[in-house]
Amino acid sequence: MKAVIQSGGKGMRLRPYTNILPKPLMPVGSKPVLEVLLRWLRRNGVKDVYITTGYLGHLIRSFCGDGRRWDLRIEYTEEYEPRGTIGALSLLREELDTTFLVINGDILTDLNLASFVAEHNSHGGGLTVAVSSRNVKIDFGVLEHVNNRVIAFREKPNFTSLCSMGVYCMEPTMLRYIPDGIPFGFDDLMFSMLASEQPAHTFVHNGTWLDIGRIEDFQKAQDLNWDEDTPAFDTTPLRLEAIGLG
């Protein structure tokens, strides 16, 4: 199976760190997030990877090369203007000719891809989204009202929702939704599918999911044990000279 890793963003939430490194090369423990993703994909049986690049993409290409050291085949696209999380796939229309994975380049997860893809295949739809439960605390008092009269009040409540993990399984038919030359995000894809009443499915994951673009998750990732006994991840030294910084 082919996988696309989205790595073209500027990582605004992690500045000033991403003034120097693109977000996928931010270190978690002793290695960059992107390498953790590549090793996870390889352990899950993926061998063909496309990395979409934009901001500081030359550092990503220098670090990953052709993927040979991970027993992968890596190819790249380059966005000269931002195309959005889904719009970047328009540069790979010819290559994505079978069921494929799309993964944000700033996540860490132990999602079992075999189970994820099997669920996707079972319903025969064009898109399956991996989702995970996320609890969000509102740091304000929340009022409910009808006709400007308060009917309920909760002080700093917690809300739990299923959120997209930034991992998708898609069929080539999904590419027809993507316009050429303009930004097109995952939200645009969802709105387009809902408007045309095309089914999108979910796969609930109860394990690890961190979005290192969020400061809280990035800090949490540093506290995890990234040794070789961890089932989803293993570690090798981050060689800064490989990306021109050492």
Task: Please explain how this structure is put together.
By secondary structure, this protein is an alpha/beta fold. The chain has one domain: Spore Coat Polysaccharide Biosynthesis Protein SpsA, Chain A. The protein has five helices and 13 strands. The chain has helices spanning 33-43, 57-64, 113-123, 186-195, 215-223, and strands at 2-7, 27-28, 31-32, 48-53, 73-78, 100-104, 107-109, 127-137, 141-146, 149-155, 158-170, 201-204, 209-211. The two termini are 35 Å apart.
What's the helix and strand layout?
Elements: E1 2-7, E2 27-28, E3 31-32, H1 33-43, E4 48-53, H2 57-64, E5 73-78, E6 100-104, E7 107-109, H3 113-123, E8 127-137, E9 141-146, E10 149-155, E11 158-170, H4 186-195, E12 201-204, E13 209-211, H5 215-223
Beta-strand fraction estimate: 25-35%
Biggest sheet statistics = 7 strands, mixed
Poorly predicted runs: 227-246
Task: Find the CATH superfamily.
Answer: Spore Coat Polysaccharide Biosynthesis Protein SpsA, Chain A
Radius of gyration: 19 Å
Q: Helix/strand-derived class?
A: alpha/beta
Q: Approximately how much helix is present in the residues?
A: 10-25%
Output the CATH topology: Spore Coat Polysaccharide Biosynthesis Protein SpsA, Chain A
Strand tally: 13
Overall number of structural domains? 1
* Number of helices, where a helix is a run of at least 4 consecutive DSSP H or I residues: 5
The global form is globular
Features:
single chain; 246 residues; alpha/beta; Spore Coat Polysaccharide Biosynthesis Protein SpsA, Chain A; two-stranded antiparallel ribbon; disordered C terminus
